[in-house]
């Protein structure tokens, strides 16, 4: 089976003055194609750390991060940035858009960076903006959008390079219940329609029913919630 994302025996600690604080210990996780996984747990338990290690945004102290069958520790820096740009779509709590660009150009930018801006991807940008309900705001500068709209732009941007893996860190934390539902529905639809692998860190119990599996951080590992 071709598993998009595997974490194998991940270890992570941080230094706090002279102390070493162990955050993750022998953590394992596999996410299959078409699987939308939630990670829940108390604040400070290591959820964002797991996600950023899975997304090659920070390195683990030990263990393997296997993306599409290859341990990223063996990647060159160039391959790692390629993976970040093309194989993974990131969605954060604050949409993290480029403030002075319009909606359309947020999508264009990431695709230009990947070297793929062409007729096909232009159409993809149009289709994505349509699917997140922002076709009529394509030329608006993102500063003028509401929080929910910004997050929908961030989602379209995350999907733009057609990543195999989608990683979302508390994507609904800044939104009200209705907007939260819309955002998670969009992620769930992309995962299930296009057979992607996704992890969403969340505090929001009301959106967990969109996920196929729920893991809790427990004892510095992930434990499947029954
Ligand atoms: P969560 O997302 O579950 O709230 P995090 O993964 O952000 O938790 O953080 C887990 C723990 O690691 C927290 O105690 C946090 O303070 C600590 N931590 C996270 N990043 C760093 C860092 N870069 N340096 C030192 N400590 C950190
Ligand atoms: Mg966090």
Automatic annotation (TrEMBL):
Residues 5-224 form the ABC transporter domain. It holds the Pfam family ABC_tran. The keyword Lipid metabolism does not apply. One of its GO terms (molecular function) is ATP binding. The keyword Transport applies. SMART domains: AAA. CDD domains: ABC_MJ0796_LolCDE_FtsE. Keywords: ATP-binding, Nucleotide-binding, Transport. SUPFAM superfamilies: P-loop containing nucleoside triphosphate hydrolases. It comes from the Bacteria. PROSITE patterns: ABC_TRANSPORTER_1, ABC_TRANSPORTER_2. Signal peptide: none annotated. PANTHER family: CELL DIVISION ATP-BINDING PROTEIN FTSE, LIPOPROTEIN-RELEASING SYSTEM ATP-BINDING PROTEIN LOLD. Belongs to the ABC transporter superfamily. This is ABC transporter ATP-binding protein. It comes from Kurthia gibsonii. The lineage of its organism: Bacteria, Bacillati, Bacillota, Bacilli, Bacillales.
């Amino acid at each position: 089976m071709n598993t998009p994302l595997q974490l194998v025996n991940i270890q992570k600690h941080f230094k706090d003055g002279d102390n070493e604080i162990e955050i993750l210990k022998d953590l394992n996780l596999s996410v299959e194609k078409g699987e939308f996984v939630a990670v829940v747990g108390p604040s400070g338990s290591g959820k964002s750390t797991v996600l950023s290690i899975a997304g090659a945004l920070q390195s683990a102290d030990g263990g393997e991060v296997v993306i599409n069958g290859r341990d990223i520790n063996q990647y060159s820096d160039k391959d790692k940035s390629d993976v970040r740009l093309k194989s993974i779509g990131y969605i954060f709590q604050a949409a993290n858009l480029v403030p002075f660009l319009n909606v359309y150009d947020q999508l264009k930018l990431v695709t230009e960076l990947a070297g793929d801006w062409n007729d096909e991807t232009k159409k993809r940008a149009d289709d994505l903006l349509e699917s997140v309900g922002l076709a009529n705001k394509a030329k608006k500068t993102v500063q003028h959008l509401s929080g929910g709209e910004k997050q929908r732009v961030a989602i379209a941007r995350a999907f733009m390079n057609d990543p195999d893996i989608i990683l979302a860190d508390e994507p609904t934390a800044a939104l009200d219940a209705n907007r939260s539902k819309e955002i998670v529905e969009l992620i769930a639809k992309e995962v299930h329609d296009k057979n992607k692998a996704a992890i969403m860190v969340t505090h929001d119990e009301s959106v967990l029913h969109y996920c196929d599996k729920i893991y809790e951080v427990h004892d510095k590992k992930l434990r499947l919630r029954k």
